[in-house]
Polysaccharide deacetylase (Pseudoscardovia radai), 510 residues
Amino acid sequence: MKNPDNTPFTDANGSNNNNPQGAADANATHTTDTTIVAAPMESSAQAEADDPASAETSAPTSAGASATAPTATAPRRRWTKTLIAVPILVVLLVACGCAWAWQTRWRSIAVTVNGQRLEISAGMTVQQLMSANGDFNARPGRLLALDGTVLNDNGGDPASFTIDNRQVSPADWNSTRLPGDATVAVASGADVTEGHSTEYETVPRGVSVNVTGGVVQMVQSRGKDGKREVWVGDVSGQRVEKDVVEQPEDAQVVGVSPHPEGRNVIALTFDDGPSQQYTGPILDILKDKGVKATFFDVGTYSLAYPDEEKRMMAEGHEVASHSNTHAYLPGLSRDELRSELSAGLQNMQQASGVNTRMIRAPYGAFTADQWKDAYDLIDYNVIWSVDTKDWELPGAQAIRSAAVSGAYNGAVILMHDGGGNRDQDVAALPGIIDDLKGQGYEFVTISELLQMVGASAAPAEGDGAASDSGASASDGAGDGASGDGSASSSAASDSATMAAAASAASARQS
Ligand SMILES: [Zn+2]
């Protein structure tokens, strides 16, 4: 509220000091002079009327409107400045943003990709560049199996991307932006072959057989199996043979023709027994003459006539194997061969406790193939050097002449105590022994003969014979009865087959 008129106050102030209002007027006049835009309020005016002195003090403590009144112009200026500054700042920011965006995004830059110059937006990522250009025909490598077949068309190394010769991992393609003037190389990924584990498989040893002229064939060394590396594919499971890391060593089978130096020894041998009819009489003669011989027994006959075989053992003769059923061994498969040999050995052991790894193959038929299939089952295959041809039933005198005329130091004489009519063997034997004794011969078993020349087979590995045994053990006795007939004809062939070899051996010895 403004004072309506300054004049009356001035007049009153000067003319009438008694007027209580005068003091107020005078005071009012004073304030009027110094306050131009003040808007006295009722409370202030009342205070002036009551106490002039309070006017100055009351004003600052009065209600807000009158207190702020003196400084109200400053905020308005700041607001004005703000209203001007904010748009400027915004404009500046937008300008800066645009400049930044221009620099980093909107403008075009040039890059050279695989020798080709391309204009691209600044800020383009590797991934965007690749996607926009069909990956520049770069493909991931393939995942290959061990044998080279494709397991996965995209399973190999990823395509490679280099910026100025610096490789950018595919994981960084989305976050890596291309700089201007970059030289980029994009290439397909390499094929990758699957991982593998390594195993080893056995490379079976061979058997080297060199028995030419040997009366006794013997495993001189066992050799050893080799070892081959095999890769097994982690994904495909393929097994691929790699290098042989341990070469196998062949077993060695050699022929031995013993001629004990300074001795005059001879070995009598009897095949195809034991028999109930002839083994006993022959053992009687040997016992009477004090002579040791070697018997090659058929396994089935051992079971059939165990007492005869036990007597051979008890009287100091050597007992070895003549197979289980007198089979023609080269006619058998590997498994059949091993079964035939093992069963023969086992049946003898069962019948009389014979424990041997010495055989005489029926008909002397035992080639390098049989040795390869069974070198681990036996130590010796004993042939002969003097064939009495008793199987031809030439008469006792002829048998006696053949034995004596063919004799030499270390000779092995073939006769029979089973498998047919052996009457002539029984009849001839005493004269043979007498004649040979007369020539100064000493009778030895095969093992004794071999010992005299220091020939012994390499130690067996493990228990090979036992592992194959048992296959034919139960049928041994059953075959015994019918076996006689076949053994008889076998005995004939036995000698016939080996006649050439035997005579060759004899001739060489003579
Ligand atoms: Zn025979």
Remarks:
- The mean pLDDT is 82.
